[in-house]
Amino acid sequence: MTFWNRLRFWIRKPQNVILLVLAVLLTFLTVVPLISLMRDTFIVHSSEIMSVRGSKLGDFTLFHWRKVFLDGERSYRLFYQPFFNTVIVSLASSIIAILLGGAVAWLVTRTDIKAKGFISTVFIFPYIMPSWTLAMAWLNFFRNGLTGGARGLVTALTGWVPPTWFSFGAFPISVVLGLHYSPFAYILIGGILKNMDANLEEAALILKASRAKILLRINLPIVMPAILSTFLLVFSSSMSAFAVPAFLGTPVRYQVLTTQLFRTLNGLNPGYGYIMALVMIVVGLGILAVNQWYVGKRKSFITVTGKSSNISYMRLKNLRIPLTVVLLLLVVLIAIVPLLSFLIESFIMAPGDYRPSNFTTLFWVGEGREDIGGGEPGILINPSVYQAFWNSIRLSVAVALVAGTIGALAGYAIVRARGTKLSSFVNNLSFFPYLLPSMAFGAIYLSMFAQPFLVLPSLYGTFALLVLIGSVKYLPFASRAGINAMLQLSNELEEAAIIMGVPWRKRMTHILIPIQKSSFLSGYFLPFISCMRELALFVLLVTPANRVITTLLLQYNEKGWNQWANAINLLIIIVVLVFNTLINRLTGASIDKGIGS
Amino acid sequence: MRKASLLALLAAVLAILPAGAADQALIDAAKKEGKVVVYSITSRIANAAKAFEAKYGIKVEAYDLKDGELIEKVSREVPGNIAGADFVICQDSGRVYGQLIAPGYLVNYIPESMKQVIPTKFQNPLIFQFINKVFIYNNEKVQTPVIQNVWELTEPKWKGLVQFKDPKQEGVNANFLTMLTSPEWSAKLEKAYEEYYGKKLVLTTKNAGYEWIKRFFQNGLILGNSDTSISENVGIKGQAKTTMGLFVFSKTRYEATKNLSLAPMPDVKPFAGFMYPAFIMMTKNAKNKNAAKLFIEYLLTPEGFAPWSKDVGSYSSNPNIPINKEDFPVSYWEPRLVFEDPAYLFENRADVEEFVNTISAR
Fold it and tell me: Cα(A311)–Cα(B78) distance, rounded to whole angstroms?
């Protein structure tokens, strides 16, 4: 009797119902795929009948494990070397992102540098661009003669021919990924620095601590959790980045795990690929564990990040103008110049010839010529471009709505039920998709949903499948935003309403959501942006009829139809920026106020 | 006078005949379906689709896919009974036979009007066209072929100057490499080595085929993402050194518009490149069966093949379709190029791919 009463009492609290539903749903959508992935490492797939001698489809085999880990030189080339390359590149890009993003964040939030609004907006451009387009820009500028053909713009302008390590391989991959993810660092570290109480710095100053000591002993420990979060995000994102190493590494055969993953999943040995995906997930979990252990240890610092009324900017004095100029140049260099290069390249007829006579509007509005790209019409009059764009937009909107709403509910429930086992279980589960490498995640969903699964019919080839995987993959953004929003709210507000007998739905729509409007909105906004420029997640799942703009873009890239590709790339960025501005105007939320706030 | 006009009439009738041969009942049934979906490995399908739409008023959804991608899609969609392509134009014999034809996902269809026209050996599975990739060099500075023997490509003088599409990205390239390890081609490679150097080849691998692949790759071979960009990289004017590549012959069609210098070398020993078939087949669960049949038949006529036949490097299985004036027929290429053997590919492709993966960059 008391048990039933307790259950009835428990179930009457909305947070418990939400948590219960989410726990079941997320187990189904993330843990089951993981188990399915593990199973896939032990069976023979249709394309592996060629290599696993004398086997039938679906047979149990240890072949993949043996080949990946225990086959001497072959395993080294197949797995170990790409693995070490992945670690090196991911480490390097995390460091670059943290140093660059952190420095800009400090300058913008703690000093009196000029043009803050401009810097803050433009610095996140590289994150909006699909990551491999920065790689294309790198090639536009720095390619040396290695791949033959025209040299890059830098050589054309200065005569300097970059050495091969500068043009291809680990160095450019790290730099490009670092630049692409430095907005993460900027947003996360900036979010903390912005709210940091300047009293701490002043107190130290009064005690005659040196500038360096203040930075090391006060600022650094305070932003350390943010740095670690950035590290976690950038490292796992870099680890699962596919297109950048594919473009910058292939010419010198610099392999990382994702390029091997793509090759094996699309080629003859998907079994190898599933094992590599598993390795990547394990590494991601390891970093997450370290991160949580550290954050747990330093719990006492969290109180410091509360809002302070005393925020004073450090005066840069003589350095103010020079630093502003340097920062502006930097931002323009990494965010605007690539756009210009896309613009120019989309108007060029013969490659590498920048004389005015070689400019053409063919690739934007031309009917298409038989002798160039098989008569493909220009992108503005090309029905397949419009179809793909429309698919991308409705997909991103759908994903944003689903992920954002679930994330907000999750945030509410996790915070309200804080301390319970169920709450921390759902909390971890809702972050877990972040650690699944996009391409592997796509591959698992492909094999899970290609046939009817439990109550679900076969979803392959449907738009619903894309929405489903996008929503799960980007739930971490939304649930983080939801949790942050709820953590900043004090309990009393809702309790007052409860005492007044206001029903739960009304409490949410009339009190909680309006107050934290911009935080919740960023939970919708990040999935939208990420979805607009996502490639690896969808590349295996789209069917020709529901392909999205990024897969179309990759196709143009792969065919070498660079003018169309550059033009589409520019369009994606413009569309995202228009949305960003619109949402910003309408609601005050924007991506640069996103994750960290 | 009269005789001449009669001849002209006769010629006109003959020219129309194969094109207009489609059965009226089929046309009516196809029009009733009103639509057809095709997955294709050649982008020029879009042009053929436009012409087909104009002729019959049947809507075509044509999708251009990579070879491996197409195989993956079909092997998911057909067994799952998901409506995808009604018919496909696909390549990569080893995988197409093993993964699509053997389980019955693709069904052969030979139009009645083509049974007497297309040579029987091209009928099962029905071949749409042959495509060739040949050694092509930049002829801006030198106008005569820059190599005579493929073993020259393993010498320091060509280090870092040769381009080839990444065999991991396109199955037919891996097929070509695999065929080189066959008894036939490794013997030919061994002989070519002896003829060129006047001494016996010392092996560090299984046979001369593997040996050539290893040395070819180790000699700074540049792997590209697309044949189009390889053709630009090789052909662009004003390069310090003469470059070359092994890529799709039809890319030389961009020579004029993109201002490139490209010339093929058809007489390199023991092979000048490779040639592979593209198959045209219906899917087992085709929804628009009649429209698919009509479009297949159309593509096998001179009219339907026009988007391909106007350039070099495309060879219809229909011998009545003339090839480009600057090109040679398949019979010319046959002794010069490496062809695919599906059975050998199915057995050995995985080994060769693994071997290629272990060759280090230097």
Answer: 64
The nearest CA of chain B is from the CA of A568 a distance in Å of 18
Q: Note whether B94 and B149 are same-domain residues.
A: no
The answer to whether the CB of A398 falls within 8 A of the CB of A467 is yes
User: Which ipTM did the prediction report?
Assistant: 0.73
Of A251, A373, A544, the CB nearest to B65: A544
CB-based contacts of A234: which residues, under 8 Å, 6+ apart?
A90, A93, A94, A97, A98, A177, A178, A181, A184, A185
Q: Which carries the bigger pLDDT value, residue B49 or residue A553?
A: B49
What is the length of chain B?
A: 362
Write the CB contacts of A87 (distance below 8 Å, at least 6 apart in sequence): none
Query: Considering only residues 108 to 137 of chain B, which have any Cβ-Cβ distance to chain A shorter than 8 Å?
Result: none
Task: Round to whole Å and give the CA distance between A473 and A51.
Answer: 33
- In the predicted structure, residue A191 carries a pLDDT above the cut 80: no
Number of domains in chain B: 2
In chain A, what's the furthest Cα-to-Cα distance? 88
- Chain B residues in contact with A145 by the CB 8 A cut-off are 239-240
Distance from C-alpha of A218 to C-alpha of A214, rounded to nearest angstrom:
5
Tokens at A263, concatenated: 């090759």
Residue of B245, B259, B353 with shortest CB distance to A268: B353
Name the A residues in 329-388 with CB < 8 Å from any B CB.
349-353, 369-376
Distance CA B23, CA B18 (A): 11
User: Which CATH code fits A382-597?
Assistant: 1.10.3720.10
Does any CB of chain B come closer than 8 Å to the CB of residue A263? yes
Show which of residues 51-80 on chain A sit within 8 Å of chain B, judged by CB atoms.
51, 73-74, 77-78
| A340 pLDDT tier (thresholds 50, 70, 90) | confident
Tell me which DSSP letter residue B140 carries. T
Q: Is the domain of B219 the same as that of B353? A: yes
Do B179 and B295 lie in a common domain?
Answer: no
Do residues B253 and B314 both lie within one domain?
Answer: no
Cα gap B204→A537, rounded to integer Å: 42
* Same domain, yes or no: B199 and B250: yes
CATH number of the domain bearing residue B349: 3.40.190.10
Q: Does B324 touch chain A (CB under 8 A)?
A: no
Domain A75-345 matching CATH 1.10.3720.10: the answer reads yes
Structural domain of B287:
2-130+277-327
Q: Give the amino acid at B263.
A: A
| pLDDT given for residue B6 in this prediction | 56
**Mean per-residue pLDDT, A549-555:** 86
Confidence (pTM):
0.80
**Selected residue of A47, A48, A140, A447 to mutate for chain B interface (largest B Cβ count, 10 A):** A47
| pLDDT of A268 over the 60 cut | yes
User: B253 contacts in A (CB within 8 Å)?
Assistant: 371
**pLDDT confidence tier of residue A202, bands split at 50, 70 and 90:** confident
Q: Are the Cβ atoms of A147 and B163 closer than 8 angstroms?
A: yes
Angle at B167 between CA A151 and CA B68, to 5 degrees: 115
Domain residue ranges of chain A, discontinuous segments joined by +: 75-345, 382-597
Q: What is the token pair recorded at A424?
A: 């921390």
Q: Given A149, A250, A371, which is nearest B257 (Cβ)?
A: A371
Percentage above 90 pLDDT, chain B: 60
CB A540 within 8 A of CB A439: yes
Are B84 and B42 part of one and the same domain?
yes
| Chain A contacts in chain B segment 184-223 (CB below 8 A) | 222-223
Regarding whether B192 and B161 lie in a shared domain, the answer is: yes
| Confidence category of residue A370, pLDDT binned at 50, 70, 90 | low
Rounded to a whole number of angstroms, the distance between the first and last alpha carbons of chain B is 72
Tell me the pLDDT tens digit for each residue of B248-291. 998 887 777 778 899 999 999 999 999 999 999 999 999 999 99
Q: Which of A91-105, A469-483, B26-40 comes out lowest in average pLDDT? A: A469-483
